[in-house]
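Quick one, T. Sequence first:
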Amino acid sequence: MVLLLPWHLIEIMGESFDDPSMDEPFSPMLLMLLFTLFLAILVVLALAIIVIMVTVLTALGIVSSSALVGVFRRRWSTALRAFHYQLCVALGVACGIGLTWSVARLSNVQLSVREVFAVGALAGLCGGTLVAWAMDRLVCMMHRRNFPAMPPDDR
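Structure tokens:
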């Protein structure tokens, strides 16, 4: 609703501009003000979504455990890889449960809630791990191709 506010105001301003009985013409400055307000609302919404996502990932322990792996290994790339694997697995489990539930309902298979959660979590765990591994191999292959190993420095 808030996102549609600038369009409604532009429509109202456009009607007053088309009406020849109006004394004051359409103001471009007002349009810029509305556009700036619209962008500010979008930025605030994006920041709120980012804060919520970071809070959820921290509550699940994904961010803290990835940082701990990076501290122990003393490499930020290891922490990023651990974060990537954990995030893919968490999303895979959620998608697996949702997909299992929807397939069970659409095909009229009688599964209990416990079975839907167990089968969906297992399928999502396997699928998320596979997707994370495939993406990791792809990134490693692209990295090796674009940044070949430097020859050793002979001193």
